[in-house]
Amino acid sequence: LGFCHQLYPSAATQHLTHNNANVTHSASWSNRQAKMGVTNKKTLTKTRRKTRDVDQIKADMRSPRHLQIFKNTKAKEDLPGLGQHYCVECAKWFETEVSLVGHRRGKPHKRRVKQLKEEPYTQKDAEAAVGLRTDNKGVNKDGPEKALDQEIEMET
């Protein structure tokens, strides 16, 4: 048991199941969440900071108009640095130019740039992985029986 349980042995524990693994949290954990205004763990997880998806960022990079439409949906007063310092690859606003430059030198930014260089998977890729594609290149027009006869003749 943890340190908290050694001090307060009568403290009730709450067992939560997440991804088929039992996780034990003390009752004080859920009390802290209730004080913050969120009592449902699913809602708490679902409403964390939402970032833009990779395909949306790629659309921003391809089309400046798409990026401008996204930027216009945000109120400038609510953004860090009044919305002046924006990293397109990471879809993040920064307070100052110095913090933006520091971010661009960092590992998370470089990881995102590398991720954006990869082409996204398409429906064709998914079908090819399952084996549903139609590959007619290199198929003998005479049929498989004729091809077998030609192979047998070559061997003799």
TrEMBL record:
Species: Colletotrichum tofieldiae
Positions of transmembrane segments: none
Name of the protein: Zinc finger protein
Pfam families xref list: zf-C2H2_jaz
GO biological process: ribosome biogenesis
Cited PANTHER family: ZINC FINGER PROTEIN 593
PROSITE patterns per UniProt: ZINC_FINGER_C2H2_1, ZINC_FINGER_C2H2_2
Comp. bias intervals (Basic and acidic residues): 115-127, 134-149
Residue ranges occupied by any C2H2-type domain in the UniProt entry: 85-114
